[in-house]
Task: structure prediction
Amino acid sequence: MAEPAHEEKAAQHERLMEGLRIYGGHYAELSRRFAAWLGLHSTDATAVLEIAAAEERGVPLSPARLSERISLSTGATTALLNRLEAAGHITRTREHTDRRVVTLRGGDHIQDRADEFFGPLAHRMGAAMDRYPPDLLDRFESFVADLNATMDAHLAEPGVDV
Result:
């Protein structure tokens, strides 16, 4: 018979994983709604968000990095970038000393549109996180980083890429 402490720990793990699955579902639905709001296919909107977020972090993406982030082949990513650039949602620049390196930037309006759509949620999420002390948020940050590293390692294993 399993120990009660072990059973409670397993139940807690399941509740946490279910909470993360629900959060993932909400994130996917929000992304779908953002895409519809912009009049884009969901993959295109996801790419726009990835490009804008990377640029906001000060580490703009190359087409190859975007391809990895959104799990598309290089050819499909090129077609996607051609669509986004033609619509004015992104630009491709050559700002690296190696002129072969292409940097992706959001179009002039994209950050404004993303802020307009996501701004109210960002304020709500900020208020929700403000209820927790910084040391606990540090622990949450470590927890999420550990889960992401675990998922990355699993996804990198042979046979997982079907």
